[in-house]
Structure formats: structure tokens, C-alpha cells
Amino acid sequence: MNVAGITFLKDSKGNLWGAQIDLNIHQKLFDRFFDKIIASGQTQGLQFLRDSKGNITVCQVDLRIHQQVFDEFFNTLILQNSTARPQPQADSNIVQRAEMINRLLAHARTFIGTPYKSGGTNRQGLDCSGFTQLVFQEANMPVRLGRSSRDQILQGIPVSVDQLQPGDLVFFATTDSDPNRISHVGIVTKGGAPQEAMFIHASTSRGVIEQPIFTQYFAPRYRGARRVI
């Protein structure tokens, strides 16, 4: 196996006999390896190589003497590399999610001005949950939302008010006679501090609009948020 900073040495017959460790790359792990050799009392079989400035940059290890300790060093190195390798995929997932959110919000804003209609599910008229459901569907999100706000609040994972991010769903109880009944939903377009947070939703009075979440009207009626993508 090829590992950056490790060069294996063979004799004229192709037999492996040694390894060179680049200390510019593996100094921290090498120090643990070297401590074990010192503790064993067997310091033969190590040769330190210097660069043109006299700095020690490479340790050459005779594996005929230090095979067991080197194997521990090398196996630890392989393990570290294997656990670090998934990171680019994690970064890729973050980028893909950001692209999805951007697509979702861009599509949601194309609905601004669409009139409100109770039970509406198309661009001729939408209610709040019809709006969120249609936006997620048309923007090809990897989740299918339920039809009502009470269905949608059961999806995804809960998000605290100080952790709101674009793409999250926010829920409200707008029926004052029943303050525990979820009756309104929108999509967060801007997170951050509560006083700065924004959402887009199908308002009963103005149709689809984008506005602050925690207004005088909505703040006392806020009942939570869910992250579904």
C-alpha cells in the first residue's frame, strides 16, 4: 500500500528490508514510534538523514530489527488515513445540500404574489401547506411533504429557534381559540438571530410573501421548526 511520506526499501533480490519515514509529514506519530524503540533498549537499525541545511528530515528503519514496532506505527497511520478519507465526501454533502437549499428558495420566490386560497394547491391559489408542499415537489427536493401543516410538523428533525437555517420549516398556531393547534407553516429564507430571521409563506391576507418570522403577530404564535432536508 502506498502511503504519502513512507518509502519502502528492497534489496537486489526484491526482499523488503527497510522503510524511510518522512518526518516533515509524520513527526508526531513517529515520536510515539521512537519512544517505543527507546523503551525497548534496541536503538540499532535506525538511521537519521539530513537535508542540505543539516535538518533531520527522514528516519530510515531497518525492518529486520524493528518490524513489530514499525507495524504498529504503520497500522496506526493507515487507520488515521482511513478515518480522514470520508471528509471530502462530507464536504461534498455540505455543498450538495447548500445547492439544494438555494434551488428551493429560488423556486419558492417565484411564487411571490400568488394569491391565497383555502385548500389551494397550484399557482392559481395556495394555502400555506399547499405552498410548501408544491415548492418542495417542483424544486425536486429529496422529501415529499404531507398535505397539511399538522402532517409536516411530524417530518424531519426539530430545530431550536437559535439554530434556524434556510430551508427549515417553521410552524405556528394561528387559531387563537385553539393555541395548541398547528395551523400555519412557512419556509425559512434567512436564519441567524431571531430578530433577523425571515420566511416565505402563503399569507391569508397578502398571498405568498417573504417577511420576518418573529413579528408582533407571529412571535407569540410560533410553535417550532423542523429540518426536513
Supply the number of helical segments: 5
Overall geometric form: rod-shaped
CATH architecture level-2 label of the largest domain = Alpha-Beta Complex
Query: How many E-type strands?
Result: 12
Biggest sheet, spatial arrangement of strands: 7-12-8-9-10-11
What is the first-to-last residue Cα distance? 38 Å
Which percent range describes the beta-strand content?
25-35%
Biggest pleated-sheet summary:
6 strands, antiparallel
Can you tell me the number of structural domains? 2
User: What's the helix-strand series?
Assistant: EEHEEHHEEHHEEEEEE
| Unreliable parts | none
CATH topology of the largest domain: endopeptidase fold (from Nostoc punctiforme)
The CATH superfamily title of the largest domain: endopeptidase domain like (from Nostoc punctiforme)
Specify the CATH class of the largest domain: Alpha Beta
Secondary structure class reads alpha+beta
Q: Rg, please?
A: 30 Å
Overall pLDDT, averaged?
A: 90
Helical residues, percent: 25-40%
Notes on the structure:
The chain has 5 helices and 12 strands. By secondary structure, the chain is α+β, with helices and mostly antiparallel strands. It folds into 2 domains: 6-85, Alpha-Beta Plaits (2-Layer Sandwich); 90-227, endopeptidase domain like (from Nostoc punctiforme) (endopeptidase fold (from Nostoc punctiforme)). A 6-stranded antiparallel sheet has the order 7-12-8-9-10-11. It has a 4-stranded antiparallel sheet with strand order 1-2-4-3. A hairpin with a 5-residue loop joins strand 1 (6-10) and strand 2 (16-22). Helix 1 (23-40) packs across helix 2. It is rod-shaped, with a radius of gyration of 30 Å. The chain starts with 5 loop residues before the first strand and ends with a strand.
